[in-house]
Amino acid sequence: MKNLFSKTKLLLLGLLLQGGIASAQQFITLDKAMEIAMEHSPSIRTSLLALERSQQLLKAQKAALKSQFTLSLTPVEYSKNRTFDDYTSTWYTNESFASYGTFTVAQPVLLTDGTISLVNQFGWQNSNSTASGIENKVFTNTLNLAIDQPLFTYNKLKLELKTLELDLENSNLSYAMAKLNLEKQVSQYFYNVYLAQMSLSIAQDELKNTKATYEITKNKVDAGLSAMEELYQAELNYATSQSDVQNQQVSLDNAKDIFKQYIGMDIFEEIMVMTDVNVNPVEIDSKKAIEYGLSSRMEIRQREIDVESSQFDLITTKAENEFKGDVALSIGLIGENEKLNNIFETPTRNPRVSVAFNVPLFDWGEKKARIKAQEAVIQSTQLDLEEEKKQIIIDIRSVCRTLDNDRMQIDIAKQNERNAQLTYEINEERYKNGDLTGMDLSLYQTQLSEQKMAYAQALIDYKIELLNLKVQSLYDFEKQEPIVPQEIIDASKQKK
User: Fold this and answer.
1) Statement to judge: residues 388 and 431 lie in one domain
2) C-beta of residue 292 within 8 angstroms of C-beta of residue 418
3) Alpha-carbon torsion, ordered 319, 321, 325, 326, to 10 deg
4) Where does the signal peptide begin and end (predicted)?
């Protein structure tokens, strides 16, 4: 018996050639569909944008840890004020015109969360006061080296950097998961179109047989060998088959539109999917599948990232209303002179030391309540992690059972399809010999069509479920190789 699906593809191709539209259709394989989806799928593009966002935020944070150079310019600053002097009990007018700029180099210190900065302000000032009657024109320059260091608190720079690193890792995991889910969904939609093509092909085949039966019946009735009611039944069967072909065509067009939308193709482009659904049963080791699933499933690492992130939130929560301090040290020179060359002729030193503490006294239990709330969040994320592991084990065990069942269903469906084909051929001869009514033959024809579709569905169910196991365990049992490289799995174990 020739392969059912090879005949189906030849039949479909022949129908297209007869219709004169084969050149207008694009033939799509599953691999081709995946290529198109990876480039145009909205879900993949969204994941890529999220990944790019995380990459750029981490890049920006690392750039912020380098020396920051800023230049602030004030070309013109003019003021004229009327002021009362309490000492002399007189009013005087002060007029000032200045132009200056400030150059700053700031270097964050990742190790201590402090900042070292070098600030130089250079300018020129012209001021006069009616109180003294003297006009003062001088160049000024202030140079300071400062250190600002927080005390007794967490390192915000390290925490922000680690948070963004985890966010990038999470985005990478989400993108990898999106690709796996895309493969599964594309395959599902692809095989939906294939099954719709199969249904249309079988309906057309049934229509062809029904038409032949109708012509035989008509000839028998015209020759007076059969009753008129046989012709009425044959006409009804023929009309039903024509309607079924039209219905299957509508279902195929709808399946194609959904498929094209999902992979990002032009909705108006005509396509036809081509594939070989024959399967070679694969031996599945459920223990091995569970082992790889628990060691490399990205959802587990995402739950671990959630736990780490919630612990970071606990750190910031504990820092609210906490005892902390700040130390500020600064040394510098101030120079001023009417002549630019002599600006540091008699400089003034300006050291500055500041030590400040924040001592919380009483917050009515606010901090304690917030800490307990965040600890509850941590416990919740840890429970999510444990439940995720359990769910992975359950899902993999379920898929393995389904695959075993699907293999049995394939054998049963194949035998049923063969028996239905033989049964139809035998009863077709009986009908031609006048030993069977058209209504009875129609039932055998329907049975054959149903068994053909059941066999095709059983094969596709097995392929989809095998792909589902690949997604669940991150191990390809067809190729006998892990999806995630071993070195990445080992690195993940070291993190734990």
Assistant:
1) yes
2) no
3) 80
4) 1-24
